[in-house]
Automatic annotation (TrEMBL):
Known EC number: 5.4.99.24
PROSITE patterns per UniProt: IQ, PSI_RLU
One Pfam family here: PseudoU_synth_2
PANTHER family attached to this UniProt entry: MITOCHONDRIAL RNA PSEUDOURIDINE SYNTHASE (PTHR21600)
GO biological process, one term: RNA processing
Molecular-function GO terms, alphabetical: 23S rRNA pseudouridine(955/2504/2580) synthase activity; RNA binding
CDD domains recorded: PseudoU_synth_RluA_like
Name of protein: Ribosomal large subunit pseudouridine synthase C
Superkingdom in the source lineage: Bacteria
Primary gene name: rluC
Protein keywords: Isomerase
Organism expressing this protein natively: Calycomorphotria hydatis
Domain Pseudouridine synthase RsuA/RluA-like: 12-143
Length: 194
């Protein structure tokens, strides 16, 4: 499931960990339930059984799973807002564009944001995506003149050595067998510009 870099994917690394730590012989099953783009940090969700993977995946399809992100952007967005767009992915170039409604193969995307902190020419945002489109947060913010710091693909002029200032901060799901709500959290990176 890795990309074309030839690097081990996070999935491969997690399977190797489970095989080693739990003394699992043979192939290890691990279902990818929630993924993030390579330059993004934060929470990723795997399932150790196919039944758990199916139950968790259904929560994302039905939009009952709740995701929280943080992004450090260039520019000066308003204190809060909801962004509604239609997105189209150019698979050949691996970029996404905001396009007019009705564009063939375009998909609707929605997110809400609030300012967490203003940092001079940067703004720290708390973001709640309502849909899960490829590059959604990156392109929706950039289309309004607020590119994510380090995201040259979508207009940032700041280089960060392969990472961008977008972080999957938390994920709330219902445990696939116990039925309890669980919240998975990842602390914010400390190396973002002040």
């Amino acid at each position: 499931m890795g990309d074309n870099t030839g690097d081990d994917s996070l999935l491969d690394q997690a399977k190797a960990y489970i095989k080693r730590e739990y003394n699992k012989p043979g192939n290890v099953f691990l279902g990818v339930v929630q993924r993030i783009d390579r330059p993004v940090s934060g929470v990723v969700l795997f399932a150790r059984t196919s039944k758990a993977a199916a139950r968790l995946s259904e929560q994302f399809r039905s939009r009952t799973a709740k995701k929280e992100y943080q992004a450090l952007v260039e520019g000066d967005p308003p204190n809060s807002g909801t962004l509604e767009d239609w997105l189209w992915k150019d698979s050949a170039r691996n970029v996404v564009q905001v396009v007019p409604a009705g564009t063939p193969e375009a998909k609707q995307a929605s997110l809400s944001f609030q300012i967490a902190e203003r940092r001079g020419r940067f703004t720290l945002l708390d973001i709640q995506p309502h849909t899960g489109r490829p590059h959604q947060i990156r392109v929706q913010l950039a289309s309004r003149g607020w590119p994510i710091v380090g995201d040259g693909k979508y207009g940032s002029t700041i280089k960060r050595g392969g990472t961008i200032c977008l972080h999957a901060k938390a994920l709330k799901v219902t445990h696939p067998t116990k039925g309890e709500e669980i919240k998975l959290e990842s602390p914010s990176p400390r190396d973002w510009p002040a």
